[in-house]
Amino acid sequence: CGIEFANENLFQDAICFVTRENKKIEAFWRSLGSKPIFINETDHDAWVAKCSHLPHALSFCLFQKMDSKYPQNPSLRDMARLAKSSPQLWSDIFLSNREQVLKAAKEFQKNFFKFQKALQTKDRKTIIAFIKKANPQQS
After folding, report:
1. What residues have CB less than 8 Å from 102, skipping those under 6 apart?
2. I need a labelling partner for 25 at 20 to 30 A (CA). Which of 73, 80, 93, 114 fits?
3. E strand map for the chain
């Protein structure tokens, strides 16, 4: 970290969730080049639990037993980056959005169980459908 990593366009065209309509806050984000989107607190918390908090939790789980003596696989690079996040910060984030993180984890467990079952039974059709549901462009 440091000034050498500063980026004047960091927020250019970036989406910014705002949970309360406030002209000053909206103007602030727009002045940075961001595109504020208004969303209620409950929807925001559910969204970040699925898109940010759960991926961090999964990364922390995945790297509990990852052997560091092997070169890092490029496909794991982003997950490994998440695993290097601050324990103090993320424990606070998880606890502050506990209910939504637990809901997201339960949904993940249900989907992962479905995937595991298809894999155990060698059900290629279900595996393909499972992947297509997550990536509709692959139809």
Report:
1. none
2. 93
3. 15-18, 35-38
